[in-house]
Amino acid sequence: MDLLFAPEPREIYPEGFATYVNVDGLSDRLEGRSRPGHFRGVTTVVMKLLEIVQPNFAYFGRKDAQQSRLIKQMARDLNLDAEIVVCPPVREADGLALSSRNVYLNAEERKAAIVLYRALEATASELAAGVRDALQLQAVLQRTLGAERRARVDYAEVVDAELFDPVLRVSKPCYVLLAVFIGKTRLIDNLYIEPKSPGSEDLVFHF
After folding, report:
1. 51 lies in which domain range?
2. Which of 10, 104, 172, 176 lies at a CB distance of 3.0 to 4.6 Å from 191, suitable for a disulfide?
3. pTM of the full predicted structure?
């Protein structure tokens, strides 16, 4: 049996609502820096939904990598019963990650938007060739994104996969994170990188 829980906003946020959930540290960088207050809203509404529905599993997309990490942290810190499962991005045939925001792209912007995926591919190629220096990788990102005149970079960074702090060298699980405006539409995407085994120089890439 399939069930759908779709409450009205006033049911979730009744008059006089004044309690919020905030994950310190992880909320104030990258997406949190570009969209102040966004994560407080996300963690609050997810907390409420998990408490109301009481699921065994809750699924979130890795395209929103920082958001998924915050929710896992919240679930752990607050001893929530639901297991948070992070799922890989779903992509179009040309590599563009599916997003509700893609509908705002016109035909030319839609063609331009694949520059995000090309930038991630270029970074993966550099890593596969042995480059581990994060500044070199960020230069590749900026060069690839800068070649598309419709793209305006919000951020393009290589960060630790747990703390989301910038790294100097890729030697542990990391994310390459992108936030790019194509026209007026802001898109995000990422590449998850991890060693094949602890201490290994061989890497596995997850687009």
Report:
1. 9-87
2. 176
3. 0.93
